[in-house]
Amino acid sequence: xxxxxxxxxxxxxxxxxxxxxxxxxxxxxxxxxxxxxxxxxxxxxxxxxxxxxxxxxxxxxxxxxxxxxxxxxxxxxxxxxxxxxxxxxxxxxxxxxxxxxxxxxxxxxxxxxxxxxxxxxxxxxxxxxxxxxxxxxxxxxxxxxxxxxxxxxxxxxxxxxxxxxxxxxxxxxxxxxxxxxxxxxxxxxxxxxxxxxxxxxxxxxxxxxxxxxxxxxxxxxxxxxxxxxxxxxxxxxxxxxxxxxxxxxxxxxxxxxxxxxxxxxxxxxxxxxxxxxxxxxxxxxxxxxxxxxxxxxxxxxxxxxxxxxxxxxxxxxxxxxxxxxxxxxxxxxxxxxxxxxxxxxxxxxxxxxxxxxxxxxxxxxxxxxxxxxxxxxxxxxxxxxxxxxxxxxxxxxxxxxxxxxxxxxxxxxxxxxxxxxxxxxxxxxxxxxx
Amino acid sequence: xxxxxxxxxxxxxxxxxxxxxxxxxxxxxxxxxxxxxxxxxxxxxxxxxxxxxxxxxxxxxxxxxxxxxxxxxxxxxxxxxxxxxxxxxxxxxxxxxxxxxxxxxxxxxxxxxxxxxxxxxxxxxxxxxxxxxxxxxxxxxxxxxxxxxxxxxxxxxxxxxxxxxxxxxxxxxxxxxxxxxxxxxxxxxxxxxxxxxxxxxxxxxxxxxxxxxxxxxxxxxxxxxxxxxxxxxxxxxxxxxxxxxxxxxxxxxxxxxxxxxxxxxxxxxxxxxxxxxxxxxxxxxxxxxxxxxxxxxxxxxxxxxxxxxxxxxxxxxxxxxxxxxxxxxxxxxxxxxxxxxxxxxxxxxxxxxxxxxxxxxxxxxxxxxxxxxxxxxxxxxxxxxxxxxxxxxxxxxxxxxxxxxxxxxxxxxxxxxxxxxxxxxxxxxxxxxx
Amino acid sequence: xxxxxxxxxxxxxxxxxxxxxxxxxxxxxxxxxxxxxxxxxxxxxxxxxxxxxxxxxxxxxxxxxxxxxxxxxxxxxxxxxxxxxxxxxxxxxxxxxxxxxxxxxxxxxxxxxxxxxxxxxxxxxxxxxxxxxxxxxxxxxxxxxxxxxxxxxxxxxxxxxxxxxxxxxxxxxxxxxxxxxxxxxxxxxxxxxxxxxxxxxxxxxxxxxxxxxxxxxxxxxxxxxxxxxxxxxxxxxxxxxxxxxxxxxxxxxxxxxxxxxxxxxxxxxxxxxxxxxxxxxxxxxxxxxxxxxxxxxxxxxxxxxxxxxxxxxxxxxxxxxxxxxxxxxxxxxxxxxxxxxxxxxxxxxxxxxxxxxxxxxxxxxxxxxxxxxxxxxxxxxxxxxxxxxxxxxxxxxxxxxxxxxxxxxxxxxxxxxxxxxxxxxxxxxxxxxx
Lengths: 434, 434, 434
Known about the structure:
CATH topology of chain A: Ammonium transporter fold
CATH architecture of chain A: Orthogonal Bundle
Distance between the termini of chain A: 58 Å
Oligomer: homotrimer
Strand content of chain A: under 5%
Number of strands of chain A: 0
């Protein structure tokens, strides 16, 4: 392994080393988003369901990354036109860096779903779905979108039809919209939590137990997101050219879209109620990030403000539609934050694209390529997710019992209390203290 | 954008790539300090004001970074002698990396203020002040201090007068003292929270709601601070020389000063009360970091212990003076932690400077340059901050009403409860559980 | 310091710069593990002892890193055969990067102990032990294990005897087992918390106060662990060869072992009780990480699953033995998580080693080298730790009084309340709010 000669430490090796260093660091940052999601979701659920939410997050990563190693990465390359090449069969250990880099994106899609089905999904149902998402659902999406020969790639159906590939830089649709739409679908099949809606269809608010954890999670996610977006650009491309210009643009657009999303969501909430709802500001910041994630390499600075602003402003509105019109109980608002925001940003590319990036491409062709990609990914996600949760429901395995839901999933599924010293009934403890 | 030739992947490009990789990573770390400040401040306010504090932190970043993009960076270069060059006008996208790198320092200064005015400032007043800080107040300071042609630079007034520039490596005065002094000034204009002081001038303690969040924030800040201090050194300088010696010294002094600050503050608290107050240890660790931030590139190892120790030891004493003599309600102790600690460290340079760094410079000239810089920055900050908050106060826009303050800002300004399931009155919820 | 010539920016300098950049970043990540340990431990103690636990974490770092600078690094090099070379005497400031890199590993060992002795150890006793651990106990271990000329090195006793050195890549035994065994020893000498065991030897559960903080800490640790394990590999070795293969293997095995540990611990808990205990899943994830830490550079992919699985599965079993058979009150389960998991993983090397790494080495020799290293390190740790805590106990300085323990250490040792607004008796506050 170490028998390299000094000759190899030439320019190409230095380039590989710099790219490798960068990829490892951003992979670690993206992994840290799991801690962010855990806190964001834990803060938004009731205290009787916090440990359940945390366990789901731990198992999403543990089960998902194992399955993605054994199966998912193979499906991804298969759909991308490279044959079934699972990660355990890699001959060069260095390729496991690329595998892990792909895995942290895959696991981000997976973990989004848990926020939508909080408070009533059975743990085993959620784990089963995560297994299938990591093995097949997500890898088919990434394989279609992120290989030249994939269905949405330049050499695939979309490229042949429109002369331009579906363009999703860091996964605004591939990762976030996919996760957000899967979450909405699962929440729809599963039905709402007890008491969430009245018989006349009007909604009751079930507030989360800790705004502090929710905002902590938001800021941890924003930190990891710099890895997610900026880290999607290598330092050098395959021809050895330094990508400083691309890195700079992505860093700028990611920053401005996140800022704009927070201000827009807070502003809409303020216009509607006269108060600046903290959770809308936080989720708006995330929606702004989601909105730019497909196109941070291509947007202008004003485009970043615009995309982030639209993604933030639609949040209170779309959340209200999901709640009041569709009566779907999307506990952590994953559809407006990840689903609609991701789709909107992906489709806005032709409007906000920098001239230097657009070149001679027709904005119409660009839009049609984006639209086709979105439609295909949404359809695939809705159908597969609906079938799986529908089957689990038909088997009576999707949801915990009414008693367990009321008691809280922490006790019924995990046998623990999250805060044994706080709340109505303090647990009796042995040491006599308070 | 990608049309570079292979020729460019020569040594200079490799150097640029390594510097770029480093700058991006440390920028992300410094951004993460916002999460740290959010937790540190949230932990130190009452539970009825937590969401207000978190919202301020989210909006500090969102509003501030937008304003710094549109205006602030232009003012910074203007004051630094480079003409008004706002970030939206950059021709090379790679320069946005440098912009973002500057922005995270600027936002650190901005966010410090929110800790001082907690629990009674109106959200709109705070946001207005943040706008002006990001647009003008901070950029004037950084422009004066961090350009050769700036007032405090080697080619400016200070350099011409003393033969040596004002030396603030990572912003001990430019960022931290500026923020801490702005916070003290704003808190003074705003007046204390209801009940904080008695008619005879004696003080009442209003404890924060969670030591755990405060210490979490402290340790997140310390993590980000490695980016802040060590990351202020590039990997290579402009002549292509590797800066390993500088990086090593900064890493060492930053570590020792933080350790020394925690021990000294804890020790003084222990000497005064017989107990090792957790919050003093945490804030002492931060004060040690602030103390060394101006001079980590220049201090000896024993100097790092000394500066950190002095910065930590002054914390309980200065806090007591602010509270008991001045009767200023600096909620999160931002003046002793960021203000006085930053000034003290900046002024201690001639005492602790390593001989190799001092060279032939006179310690007296060095001290006068440091003192001049501190005086100019403090005066500018106090005057501008005092004028703005004074104007807001005169307009009746600075402070929430007495009723809103007593009820808590979470409900009155944001319409939310941070912990709806804990505390005196549990909110009625729909799902029937606890 | 900056008077380097352009000539030096040749390949070797670029290699040094890349390695330096990487080492700094992973050092910061490993430092962040202190925040993770603080949250993990805070979550697992009662609310009356949280600030005590947080203070210990802050002082572990502050005292420990100062002592390691002044003494510990010197002992490390002395035992490793390089003479007493303390860090304050380094001539090249760049070497302080290497010092800090070593220090963050040392402090990880130190901080593990605080989780075992929570809730009853005197602060001064804990600080005294930390002083000695950082000055002598840990440096002797690292000096024996991580220098060629050390007792366990290739040129030392183990290498001469078995033809192969004790192999502990990132500190599975040197750091984690050392810390876990020190914790168990200290907890044993100190005795259990009041009420933890009944007169007949049966155990009472004293639950931690917040599962959310415990899981937050777990995920922060996992993030830092990528720095800990992957960061133990340089980017280039001393001969200038790029270590991409090693980096890829370590990244993969670390990921799979962590996933496997979480699933195995959760699975065993589920098999025993029918419920998936959240804390076992979290601690199992950590045990999987500990298990692989000695051997991530050498294990196969299936070996990573196996090592992680065994490390996770033993957790509920070993915890039960410590609790029910030994009646030792290891509050945060540091022995099963760090101690036994670290030893098991270290000893499993010959079973799971990749053929390319094994080469012509005999698996028996390899096992004997591993076993010898483990025995020596365990014996040294038990004896020194037992003597120190035994001496403190004999002097009446090891444990707080019965009254202080019942009242909680936050009040008695630190004069603070962690959550003054929650719990049985709300503190009277001045501002009239809730």
